[in-house]
Write a structure and sequence with these properties.
Layout (H helix, E strand, L loop, with lengths): L1 H102 L8 H24 L8 E3 L1 H10 L2 H9 L3 E7 L6 E3 L1 H17 L5 E12 L12 E10 L6 H4 L20 H11 L3 E7 L3 E9 L23 E5 L3 H13 L3 E5 L2 H10 L4 E5 L8 H11 L5 E5 L5 H9 L4 E3 L4 H12 L2
Parallel strand pairs: 2-4, 8-9, 8-10, 10-11, 11-12
Antiparallel strand pairs: 1-3, 4-5, 5-7, 6-7
Helix pairs in contact: 1-2, 1-8, 2-7, 3-5, 5-7, 9-10, 10-11
Length: 448
């Protein structure tokens, strides 16, 4: 009996022990599941943190690269701007004197053709200077409302520059796909045409054996970042897209294509390496964005985004006959620190029927005004050494309140020009001088 009771007691203990072990096993399984969930959550959180850190590092690297690129472009732009200023002064004689010489030559004179060639060459050189000013981001001053399809694309496709490109690449087909109701933009037609010309030239050159270049335009509302930009201004834009099926751009070159003088082009035919830098500068000056997609062996697509304007386009003004802006002996004071500039301006003004004199500095001009009232001042904005055009004008209006003046400079318009105009100065004209440019500006101010 005792043996049976002992056996039952032992069995009962075994049962209770098994129950405890079973409960412990369940609890252990629950702990394993719970701990697995915790580890999985921690692992996912760690992966997320790693991805965020990698993305942050990538963004930081991208920002550092963009900053370095912007600083490099800014430094090169400052250099280009200084060179452009000096070149504008040198070019003034080449651009301005042919006008004066042609006025004294009859239509049959054999000298007319070479003088006109000199004049045309001077204007082409001045256009190159405009590229440098664009690179310096000092070139977009006179903007107007534009129909991009007609004022830029159609004009370019009819231009001598485009015809010349077709002679270099006769097997290239140019296709246009232009939105019929494209909205207007406000910008500089000179810079925008040069931008289009550079992009089409690049696309054609990427297909030396022949191919297609497609030009697209469209309206687009942007409410999310454009590739390559962290932030964009939300709103309506027009988009210019140039697409080719040429050689494409290597990935290592994509981040450098907008650097000045970074080029693999044929020198003498395709430019000097400023083309894409001019594109970049023009887009920046027009508050736009640029996006590049390229695959080696397949081709390249470049999209430019320009903000639209609700303003209507103004009618283009025709060239005025010289009689309409000739003077009647009014006394004009030319103030410029460069001797050649003073000679050119005074010769032009004398030819236009004005009485012209000059001063070599702002200080000299102020002393002259104290003793000699003048009808008009042609005032250079940048003079060195001594005071500049703005400070000169401030002192002159203390002597002669309301003194009429126009402002001239080899640089583009800036805040000091605007300040002088706020004080009463008139139009701003960019050097080099032309007969019509300076004549119309003076006539307009004298008529006020």
């Amino acid at each position: 009996m005792n043996a049976i009771e002992a056996k039952d007691t032992y069995a009962d203990k075994i049962k209770k022990t098994n129950e405890k072990l079973e409960k412990l096993n369940y609890r252990l399984e629950d702990m394993v599941v719970e701990r697995t969930k915790e580890l999985t959550t921690s692992y996912e959180q760690l992966k997320k943190e790693i991805r965020e850190r990698q993305r942050a590092d990538k963004e930081k690297k991208g920002l550092e690269e963009r900053l370095a690129r912007s600083q490099k472009m800014e430094a090169l732009g400052l250099l280009a701007g200084g060179v452009a200023h000096d070149l504008n002064n040198v070019l003034s004689g080449i651009v301005s004197y042919p006008d004066l010489i042609l006025m004294d030559l009859n239509e049959e004179d054999p000298l007319r053709e070479p003088v006109e060639t000199i004049k045309d060459s001077g204007h082409k050189a001045a256009a190159i200077v405009q590229d440098l000013l664009t690179l310096a981001r000092r070139g977009v001053t006179n903007t107007q409302v534009l129909d991009f399809n007609n004022d830029i694309i159609s004009e370019y496709l009819r231009s001598p520059e485009h015809e010349k490109l077709r002679t270099y690449y006769p097997h290239i087909q140019i296709d246009t796909h232009l939105e019929a109701e494209l909205m207007n933009i406000k910008g500089s037609p000179v810079h925008l045409k040069k931008t289009l010309m550079n992009l089409v030239s690049n696309a054609a050159e990427s297909q030396p054996s022949g191919g297609k270049v497609a030009i697209y335009t469209r309206n687009q509302y942007i409410d999310s970042p454009v590739k390559g930009y962290d932030h964009v201004l939300e709103g309506d834009y027009i988009v210019l897209k140039i697409e080719d099926n040429g050689a494409g751009i290597a990935q290592e070159d994509l981040n450098r294509i907008f650097e000045p003088f970074y080029t693999k082009k044929i020198m003498g035919r395709s430019g000097t390496g400023l083309g894409m830098a001019v594109v970049w500068g023009t887009v920046q000056d027009h508050h736009g964005y640029i996006q590049v997609e390229s695959t080696e062996g397949k081709g390249t697509a470049i999209e430019l985004y320009f903000p639209i304007t609700r303003e209507g386009a103004k009618k283009e003004t025709a060239h005025m006959p010289i009689e309409s802006y000739k003077g009647s002996g009014e006394l004009i004071l030319v103030v410029d620190d460069v001797k050649e500039q003073r000679k050119i301006a005074t010769h032009i003004l004398t030819k236009l029927g004005y009485t012209a004199t000059s001063a070599a500095s702002g200080e000299e001009a102020i002393e002259y005004i104290k003793e000699n009232p003048v009808d008009m001042i042609v005032l250079d904005m940048i003079m060195d050494p001594g005071i500049d055009g703005l400070d000169t004008y401030k002192e002159i209006i203390k002597i002669t309140s309301g003194q009429k003046a126009i402002i001239a400079s080899g640089f583009a318009e800036n805040e000091r020009v605007t300040e002088a105009q706020r004080l009463g100065a008139g139009q701003y004209i960019k050097k080099p001088y032309t007969l019509e440019k300076i004549g119309l500006a003076i006539k307009h101010e004298l008529s006020k």
